[in-house]
Amino acid sequence: xxxxxxxxxxxxxxxxxxxxxxxxxxxxxxxxxxxxxxxxxxxxxxxxxxxxxxxxxxxxxxxxxxxxxxxxxxxxxxxxxxxxxxxxxxxxxxxxxxxxxxxxxxxxxxxxxxxxxxxxxxxxxxxxxxxxxxxxxxxxxxxxxxxxxxxxxxxxxxxxxxxxxxxxxxxxxxxxxxxxxxxxxxxxxxxxxxxxxxxxxxxxxxxxxxxxxxxxxxxxxxxxxxxxxxxxxxxxxxxxxxxxxxxxxxxxxxxxxxxxxxxxxxxxxxxxxxxxxxxxxxxxxxxxxxxxxxxxxxxxxxxxxxxxxxxxxxxxxxxxxxxxxxxxxxxxxxxxxxxxxxxxxxxxxxxxxxxxxxxxxxxxxxxxxxxxxx
Length: 374
What we know:
By secondary structure, the chain is an all-alpha fold. It has helices at 10-27, 30-58, 65-74, 79-107, 111-127, 134-147, 152-176, 182-210, 215-240, 255-275, 287-309, 318-332, 344-373. 76% of the residues lie in helices and 0% in strands.
């Protein structure tokens, strides 16, 4: 008896391989990586919320959905950031619940009680520097006064327990499902920042020579860069606190924190100089050298973005060095140009732009050197 074959026919196997190859290729792209990270985060939130809800129900708590909400809200990319958000949420819940209970007992359920309680809880939470918890404190105090004034202290205690449960489950899920240390997240964040900076830099240089300025795209990139820098600051802090699996000798050199912010500031200076241009013509004299330096700078940013994310121990920016040397030598040959041939404002704009370009290149060289030293 002839047994049926489980092997795919050649066409079917080829089609399956093409799909797998296409998926792998997409997964390696920035969009693919971003989508996968979002999917992992959504999955962790779903698991944490479901577990929190089930546990709260098993304990016969009155409002188990609060535990699920807490698990979703505090879930973040790393253990440290999840713990930070969790602490903020506990603080906001405690301040709001206590404030609401006090005013519910003292003034009852009315406009004055609500207004004073919300004002004081938000003000005091912000004054004590718990900014992330301020709105939650006001929200919880309002709920206590409007819906639970008959048993405010019991309700406050319940919110505290449910919030604590949600945070605990979120921390456990974050540690066991798709765990990501601060070091890994920091490398991914730095890589994304450099990629965005490269696009911003390209738009600024293009505007310098063509006059075209895509403000919508620039503003979008600026928002992304600022967000990455803020996230990076908290990740640097987590790494310094040891919340990473990387040994000290394998971590990103701390000089990167300063250098990448300086590059951001330099490109902003270049942008400002370009936008202040009028009928400048001096720029065209060094156009070939500036163009080459810009191309090497963009290439260096993307190279570093890949290197820092993949733990690449060494790389060469020899093209950057050559471009910097050529541009500087050409500039030195222009010393005989008489200042009266060009307006002083035009010369100042050009030299500000050019020397800032040089500084960006030198900062990138220093970043590459720290990787090599690792």
